[in-house]
UniProtKB/TrEMBL annotation, chain A:
Similarity remark: Belongs to the glycosyltransferase 2 family.
Protein name per UniProt: Glycosyltransferase, catalytic subunit of cellulose synthase and poly-beta-1,6-N-acetylglucosamine synthase
Species classification: Bacteria, Bacillati, Bacillota, Clostridia, Eubacteriales
Keyword Membrane: yes
Alphabetical keyword list: Glycosyltransferase, Membrane, Transferase, Transmembrane, Transmembrane helix
Molecular function terms, GO-annotated: glycosyltransferase activity
Ranges of residues in domain Glycosyltransferase 2-like: 67-216
Range of residues in the leader sequence: none
InterPro entries cross-referenced by the UniProt entry: Glyco_trans_2-like (IPR001173), Nucleotide-diphossugar_trans (IPR029044)
TM region positions: 20-40, 358-384, 390-412
The keyword Repressor is assigned to this record: no
UniProtKB/TrEMBL annotation, chain B:
Stated name of the protein: HEAT repeat
UniProt-listed InterPro entries: ARM-like (IPR011989), ARM-type_fold (IPR016024), PBS_lyase_HEAT (IPR004155)
Species annotation: Thermosyntropha lipolytica DSM 11003
Higher taxonomy: Bacteria, Bacillati, Bacillota, Clostridia, Eubacteriales
Keywords attached to this entry: Membrane, Transmembrane, Transmembrane helix
Gene3D superfamilies: Leucine-rich Repeat Variant
GO MF, one annotated term: oxidoreductase activity
Keyword Oxidoreductase attributed: no
UniProt cross-references to PANTHER family, sorted A to Z: DEOXYHYPUSINE HYDROXYLASE, PBS LYASE HEAT-LIKE PROTEIN
Membrane-spanning ranges: 6-25
Annotated SUPFAM superfamilies: ARM repeat (SSF48371)
Length: 473, 381
C-alpha cells in the first residue's frame, strides 16, 4: 500500500516537472514570437516615420488640443519640476491639470507657491462620479495650468476628477514623477489624427535614473549607477520593445502604461472613466475599453507607438520595487477577474481568444509555476526522482531563454532608437541582460507571488513609493 | 523532451545571433553608405547650389541636365540629389518653386518617384507620394489618383496631401469624390489637407461644399472658414439650415472665422436648436461676431441645461460690448447656474481684465469686482 502511494506521488511529481518544462517552453516560444513580431513592427514604424507629417502638425491649428492629467499623491519632491517640464512641451494647444489627491505632504502648497496660484470658483461637471473636489487653483497669467485639490480617493479617482475638469477631446495621463520628451505629445497624438478609429495610444516608458536632467528635461541619456535600476532598464526594454509592440502588432494590446498614455475623452467617459477601488487602473481602463467596444461591435483601435518617450524614475530600493511589483500583480489580477467573461470568448475576437488567455495563463499564474519549478525540480533531483541531465536542462533552459530574450530586446533597441549608442553602454546593458537572470528575475517573481497571496487584502489599497527628486545637473 | 528543449535553445540562439549579425551588417552598411554619400555630397551639392542660385535668371543648360540625369542612375548620388532638391522645395517658395519643379522633371527625378508609386511596398509608395507632393509636378496626378483606392492610412494621407500641394483643382476635387465613407483619416487630418491646397481654393470649395457626402462637405465648409474669404459667406450660410448637424456646425464655425455678422440672427436662432452641440457652437460663434443683437439671447443661454452651452455663452457675453452690464444684472438675479458659470469665466485672465476695465469706467455701486468677491465668499460659506 505504501509502495502504491509512493509510486503515485513519484508519478505526480514527475508529471508536474514535465508540465513545468512544457510550460517554460510554451511561454518562451510566445516571447520569441513577440520578439519576431516586434522586430517587424519596429522596422515598419521606423519606415513610417519617414513619411509622417508630424512636424507639420506641431504648428497646425488642426492639431487636437490635449489635456494632460497629472495625479499627485505625496509627490512634493518631484511635482514642481514635473509641471515645469510639462508646461515647456512643444505642442500647439494643451492644458496641464494637476490633481492633488489629498496628499499628506506639502504637494499642494508647493505647487500653489511655485506657480503663484489662487483659488477660483470654477464649476465642475461630474460626468464621472468622484470624491469631492475641495478647490480649483489657477494663475490668470498661466492659463494652461489648473490645480485641482480633492479628497483622497486613489489614483483612478484623481484621474476621473481630471477628466471632469478637462476641456479638450484627448486626455493623457502622466505620473507625477515622469518627464516627457519635447515632441512626445505630438507623436502620441498623431495616431488620433491619422486614424479616426483610434481611442487610445500608449507610448514607451524609459528609465531616467542616471541621465542628466536640466530644467525638467533629459539633456543627456545615460545608464544608471544603481544596479537595481540597471536591471529595470533591461526589463523595461524587454517589456516595451518586445511585449507591447508584439501585442500591438496583433491588435491585442491590453496595457497602456499609466505613466504615459493618451485616450479619447468621450470613449473614457462612455465606459465610466477609470475604475475606482483598483490599483491597476491603467490596465483596467484598457481592458474595459476593449470589452465595451467589442461588445457593442464598434470599430476602434488601441495602439502602441515606440518613440514618444516618457522618462520615469525606477525605484532604487528593494522595498519600493517590491511594492511596485506587488501592485502591478494585484492590478493585473483584479482586471482579469473583472473581465473574466472575455476569457476564451470568441465574441471578443483576438482579445478574448489570445490576449486575455495569455495574461491569465502566463502573466497571472506564471510566477506561481516558476516558483514551484524553482522548488520542486531541485527537490525532485535531490530526492532522486529526476536524473541530473533533466535537472541541468531545466536550469540551463530557464536561464538561457531569459538571457536570449533580454539580449534580443537590447539588440532591437540598438537597431531602432539607439538611445544608448556607445559600446560601453551596449556592453553594460548586455551584461545586465545576462546578470538579471541570476537573482533579480527570481526576486521579482517572489514579489509577484506576494501580490497573488495578498490580493484580497490589498486590491483596493493605493501604495506609496518614496520618490527621489530628479537630480538636476 | 530533452531534444525539444535543446532544439528550442539552438533555434532561439540562432535567432538572436542572426538578429545581432543583421544589426552589425546594417550598421556597417549604413556607415559605408554615409561615407559614399559624403564623398559625393560636396561636388553634387555645389553643382546644384550653383544651378539653383541662378535659376531665377538663367535656364538650366542641357549639359547640366544631362550631368544630373546621369547622377540619378547611381543610387548614392541619386539620394544626395533627392535630399538636396527636397531641401530646396521645402525652403524656396514663389516663382522659383515652378522652376524647381521643371528641373526635377527634366532630370528624371519626378519619373523616378512616379515609378516608385508602383511598388508593392506601401511604405515606399507613401514616401514617394510625399516626395511628389513636395515637387508639385502635375505629371504625377494620374498615378496619384489611381492610388486613392488603396486602403492604407499612410498612402491615402500622402496621396491627398500631394494632390493638395500640386494644386490642380480638378484632380483634387476628383480625389475627394473618390473617397468613400469608410475613409480611415480623421476629420482634422482632412481639414489640414484641404487647408494645404495650393491652387484656386475658392473654386475647390464651391465644388466640394455641395458634394453629396456630408462628411466631406463639412470638411470643406470648415476649411473655407479657415481660409476666411468672405466671398464664400453667402453660400456657406445656406448650410445653417441644413438637416445635417456637422454641416450646420461647420457653417457656423466658418462664418465665425470670417467674422461676417450678416448672419447673426440666423445663428441666434440656432441657440434653440435641439442638439446641444449646435447650441454650444452657436454661443461661441456669436462671441466671434461681436454683435450687440446677441447679448440678450446669450444671457438666456446662460441657463441652458448643457454646461458647454452655458460656458460658451458666458465667454461670448463678456467679450461683446455692453455684455458686462448684463453680467452685473445677472449677478443680482436668482439663477444659480447662470451666476456660477459667469463667475467661472470672469476668473480667467481674460475675464478678470474685463472686470477691472468695467469697474474703471462704469458708475455702478457696488463695484462688479466687489460683487463677485461677495458672491464667492457667500458660496464658500
Amino acid at each position: 500500500m505504501i509502495n502504491m502511494h509512493t509510486l503515485f506521488l513519484r508519478e505526480m511529481v514527475l508529471k508536474f516537472n514535465y508540465f513545468i518544462i512544457y510550460y517554460v517552453l510554451v511561454i518562451n516560444f510566445i516571447y520569441f514570437l513577440q520578439l519576431i513580431l516586434a522586430a517587424f513592427k519596429l522596422n515598419d514604424y521606423i519606415r513610417k516615420i519617414r513619411y509622417s507629417d508630424y512636424q507639420k502638425y506641431k504648428v497646425s491649428d488642426n492639431m487636437l488640443p490635449i489635456s494632460i492629467l497629472v495625479p499627485a499623491y505625496n509627490e512634493e519632491e518631484t511635482i514642481v519640476e514635473n509641471i515645469k517640464s510639462l508646461l515647456a512641451l512643444n505642442y500647439p494647444k494643451f492644458e496641464v491639470i494637476v490633481i492633488n489627491d489629498g496628499s499628506k505632504d506639502n504637494t499642494l502648497k508647493k505647487v500653489i507657491e511655485a506657480f503663484d496660484l489662487v483659488k477660483v470658483n470654477q464649476p465642475v461637471r461630474y460626468r464621472i462620479k468622484t470624491n469631492k473636489i475641495k478647490g480649483i487653483y489657477r494663475n490668470i497669467e498661466l492659463p494652461q495650468l489648473i490645480l485641482v485639490d480633492k479628497e483622497n480617493g486613489g489614483k483612478a479617482d484623481a484621474l476621473n476628477a481630471g477628466i471632469n475638469i478637462a476641456n479638450f477631446p484627448v486626455i493623457t495621463s502622466i505620473d507625477a514623477d515622469s518627464i516627457l520628451e519635447s515632441d512626445s505629445l505630438v507623436r502620441v497624438i498623431m495616431p488620433f489624427i491619422e486614424d479616426k478609429k483610434t481611442i487610445a495610444v500608449g507610448g514607451i516608458v524609459r528609465i531616467a535614473n542616471g541621465s542628466t536632467i536640466q530644467r525638467g528635461r533629459v539633456v543627456n541619456i545615460d545608464l544608471p549607477q544603481s544596479r537595481l535600476a540597471m536591471f529595470q532598464v533591461v526589463e523595461y526594454l524587454r517589456a516595451f520593445l518586445t511585449g507591447r509592440i508584439g501585442w500591438d502588432s496583433i491588435n491585442a494590446l491590453l496595457i497602456v502604461s499609466g505613466a504615459f498614455g493618451a485616450f479619447r475623452k468621450d470613449a473614457v467617459i462612455e465606459v465610466g472613466g477609470y475604475a475606482r477601488n483598483t490599483i491597476g487602473e491603467d490596465m483596467e481602463l484598457v481592458v474595459k475599453l476593449h470589452e465595451y467596444f467589442l461588445r457593442n461591435k464598434r470599430p476602434y483601435r488601441i495602439k502602441f507607438i515606440p518613440d514618444p518617450v516618457c522618462w520615469t524614475q525606477a525605484p532604487e530600493r528593494i522595498k519600493d520595487l517590491r511594492g511596485q511589483r506587488r501592485r502591478w500583480q494585484i492590478g493585473l489580477m483584479d482586471s482579469l477577474f473583472k473581465h473574466k467573461r472575455m476569457f476564451f470568448n470568441p465574441r471578443y475576437k483576438q482579445i478574448g481568444m489570445i490576449g486575455v488567455p495569455y495574461f491569465w495563463l502566463f502573466e497571472m499564474i506564471g510566477p506561481v509555476i516558476e516558483f514551484l519549478g524553482y522548488i520542486l525540480i531541485p527537490l525532485a533531483y535531490f530526492l532522486g526522482l529526476l536524473n541530473v541531465k533533466y535537472f541541468i536542462l531545466f536550469l540551463v533552459a530557464s536561464i538561457l531563454y531569459g538571457v536570449l530574450l533580454s539580449l534580443g530586446a537590447i539588440l532591437l533597441e540598438e537597431y531602432t532608437f539607439n538611445k544608448y549608442p556607445s559600446l560601453k553602454q551596449l556592453l553594460k546593458l548586455s551584461f545586465y541582460g545576462v546578470l538579471e537572470n541570476f537573482g533579480y528575475r527570481q526576486m521579482t517573481t517572489l514579489f509577484r507571488i506576494e501580490g497573488i497571496v495578498r490580493f484580497r487584502e490589498m486590491k483596493h489599497s493605493w501604495g506609496e513609493i518614496k520618490r527621489k527628486g530628479f537630480q538636476e545637473k | 523532451m530533452e531534444l525539444i528543449v535543446l532544439y528550442s535553445i539552438i533555434l532561439f540562439s540562432i535567432l538572436i545571433i542572426a538578429l545581432f549579425l543583421y544589426l552589425v551588417a546594417e550598421k556597417i552598411y549604413a556607415e559605408y553608405k554615409e561615407k559614399r554619400k559624403q564623398k559625393y555630397q560636396e561636388s553634387i551639392s555645389s553643382l546644384l547650389d550653383g544651378i539653383i542660385s541662378e535659376l531665377d535668371e538663367k535656364e538650366v543648360t542641357d549639359v547640366q541636365i544631362s550631368i544630373l540625369s546621369n547622377y540619378l542612375k547611381d543610387k548614392t548620388k541619386r539620394e544626395v540629389i533627392e535630399e538636396r532638391m527636397l531641401f530646396y522645395f521645402e525652403n524656396f517658395k514663389g516663382s522659383i518653386s515652378t522652376r524647381l519643379t521643371k528641373l526635377a522633371e527634366d532630370i528624371g527625378l519626378v519619373d523616378y518617384e512616379i515609378k516608385k508609386l508602383n511598388s508593392r511596398d506601401l511604405h515606399e509608395v507613401a514616401l514617394a507620394a510625399r516626395h511628389l507632393g513636395a515637387m508639385r509636378s502635375k505629371k504625377a496626378i494620374a498615378k496619384l489618383l489611381e492610388l486613392i483606392y488603396l486602403e492604407h492610412v499612410g498612402v491615402k494621407y500622402n496621396v491627398l496631401m500631394a494632390l493638395a500641394r500640386i494644386g490642380d483643382e480638378e484632380a483634387f476635387i476628383e480625389a475627394f469624390k473618390r473617397l468613400t465613407e469608410s475613409i480611415p483619416l480623421s476629420e482634422r487630418s482632412l481639414v489640414e489637407i484641404a487647408d494645404s491646397f495650393e491652387g484656386d481654393k475658392i473654386y475647390v470649395y464651391r465644388k466640394l461644399i455641395y458634394i453629396d457626402d456630408d462628411f466631406i462637405s463639412s470638411i470643406f465648409i470648415k476649411s473655407a472658414g479657415n481660409y476666411k474669404d468672405t466671398m464664400l459667406a453667402d453660400e456657406i450660410a445656406l448650410f445653417l439650415t441644413s438637416e445635417n448637424k456637422e454641416k450646420k456646425i461647420a457653417a457656423m464655425k466658418a462664418l465665425g472665422n470670417m467674422g461676417d455678422n450678416r448672419y447673426v440672427e440666423a445663428i441666434i436662432s440656432l441657440l434653440e436648436d435641439e442638439d446641444w452641440e449646435v447650441r454650444a457652437i452657436a454661443a461661441k460663434v456669436l462671441g466671434q461676431m461681436q454683435s450687440e443683437k446677441a447679448l440678450v439671447p446669450l444671457a438666456v443661454a446662460l441657463s441652458d441645461r448643457e454646461w458647454y452651452v452655458r460656458y460658451n455663452a458666458a465667454n461670448s457675453l463678456i467679450s461683446i460690448e455692453g455684455g458686462m452690464d448684463i453680467v452685473y444684472d445677472i449677478l443680482d438675479g436668482q439663477d444659480k447656474f447662470a451666476k456660477d458659470i459667469i463667475i467661472a469665466v470672469l476668473e480667467t485672465s481674460y475675464g478678470w481684465d474685463k472686470v477691472l476695465e468695467y469697474d474703471k469706467f462704469a458708475d455702478r455701486n457696488p463695484r462688479l469686482s466687489e460683487k463677485i468677491r461677495k458672491y464667492i465668499e457667500e458660496k464658500d460659506r
